[in-house]
Here is the input.
Amino acid sequence: MQLYNTLTRQKEPFTPLSEGHVGIYVCGPTVYSEPHIGNARGPVFFDVVRRWFAREGYRVRYVSNVTDVGHLTDDADEGEDKLAKRARLEQLEPMEIAEKYFWRYFDAMASLGVRRPDIIPRASGHITEQLEMARTLLENGLAYERGGNVYFDVSAWGGYGELSGRKADDQQEGTRVEVRSDKDDPRDFALWKRAEAGHIMRWPSPWGEGFPGWHLECSVMSTKYLGDTFDIHGGGLDLIFPHHECEVAQAKGAGKGFANYWLHWNFLTFGGEKMAKSKGALALSELIKEHGGVALRFHLLSAHYRSVSDFSDKSLYASKQGLRRLQDTYTELVRRAEGADVGADDPFGVPRERFAAAMNDDFNTPQAVAVLFDSSRDVNAALSKNPNAGFVAAAKAFFDETARDVLGIVGEQADGSAEDDTALLDGLVNLVSEQRQGARLRRDFPTSDAIRDRLAELGVALEDTPEGVRWKRSTPKEKVTP
Ligand SMILES: [Zn+2]
Here is the structure.
């Protein structure tokens, strides 16, 4: 397996720290507002990453945090805590805000077929451990205290810039000039901040009451659950600097080996333009309602994670069409494969290898999807010629392993409810179809036509076959208003 490692800026073979195990840490959301589509790309991608590792026989421990304290409105350690600000606006406790948006986020993830991380550590639940690391950094001469604030001393740590590749001069230019900062150097960042009067989220510390700096939680919680050195750290491209650079400095400065591989996913664009963070129109819940979670998931996986993924009505529509083709093939296979066994020679060895090669090449999901399209076309051609049961079972097994279990784009949803719905849907469509047949026998053609048209609007196509009426999903037809 080859991964592109941000740390070395090249593709490298993946070697786990411990044979057969992989530990993954991914920076999760700050739970202070409605999740937007930008929050979905990383979790969907890493959901596929962990599924693929599991498929390859690894025991996976996947940790992804939730930030509920210390993330300020300004990257240069100034401004208000994002949760506290929102709490004031909504007239709630900060922890009510955290709880509310925590579940909004995970409900949306469930709709996208994203399985829960094995551990979801919260920053506010790890204050003791964060104080411990700040103390260690002070002892190691890599931090200093100024009136209740504790800062990491960047000039004392030679490794600063190793991940982002930023040189000292670029860093200074990139940092906002702080008028009243008590830092020795504008590049220094807060490990612990003094809580001013009226600041609700505060904890006692050796330096007075305060709260942890945003970067500290990830250095602490990743190593707590995955060990001082672990395999993979992920995050969005925008986090490389300063967040991940600071994580590395803190963890290594405290004597830990930290992450061996760094994977960063690229931005989303909307009709070619970079999304403004505040763009409310792209709330995840709205998009899920309009397009369905699986369609969004499929669309995100249709671009390589290191490429920009574009959202526009046109590109989403194309993805939905493509997804529908794969789902139709799969539905047909499920229907026909009932009780059949895979024969002695499995004709899906080659596509299986191609799929694996794509996934092992730095998780090339668009390539993996292309393999499924090819297979889907071959399977449909074969199905029209009444293949033997062994072929159908082998085709279903191939789609189960790849499209369902790894990419999560066909078949049952994470909560397992979709399977029951399939039977219900089948029953309902058959019932309606029988009513239409009855109308036809009575020569009540206006009624039978109306039923067929209404079904077409819902994306259900009826086919008259010698064995009777059959139905399949189709692209929903525009409603014709006279
Ligand atoms: Zn982080």
User: Anything to note?
Assistant: The longest helix spans residues 313-337.
